[in-house]
Amino acid sequence: QVQLVESGGGLVQAGGSLTLSCAASGNFFSIATMGWYRQAPGNQREFVADIDSAGSTKYAGAVKGRFTISRDNAKNTVSLEMNSLKVEDTAVYYCNAGIRTTALSFRVETYWGQGTQVTVSS
User: Fold this and answer.
1) How many CA atoms lie less than 13 Å away from 59 in the CB half-sphere?
2) pLDDT tens digits, 10-68
3) What is the pLDDT of residues 78-102, one digit of tens each?
4) Which residues of 22-46 are buried (b: 16+ CB within 10 A; e: fewer)?
5) What is the torsional sign of CA 61, 16, 41, 58?
């Protein structure tokens, strides 16, 4: 079993900054891609950003240039630095990871964190 735990959510004024973190724990062999998704009430969960094991990153168009994703492979963590926040960024942010759970197989399984609330006020 693998657990992903997010932290760093909170309330911030528009134009401000906030950094989210996610730590993976449990029994696993390696982590492939780690990323962030978000979901606002009434909306579908949407992709925000991800980073693979080599450090290559992808960003949703709505956040590119404002958010920066990074990871620490030694600590099994991923962070999302959010700058120039907008009211539209308000959502529950979920950590996501593709994890190889055993050295006996190349299969990668998807895990999700519990989510952390980010609220941006005008």
Assistant:
1) 13
2) 999 999 999 999 999 999 999 999 999 999 999 999 999 999 999 999 999 999 999 99
3) 999 999 999 999 999 999 999 999 9
4) bbbeeebeebebbbbbbeeeeeeee
5) positive
Q: How far is CA 112 from CA 31, 35, 64, 82, in A?
A: 13, 10, 22, 20
Query: Is residue 121 helix, strand or coil?
Result: strand
pLDDT at 1 over 90: no
Structure tokens at 23: 């730590």
AA letter at 19:
T
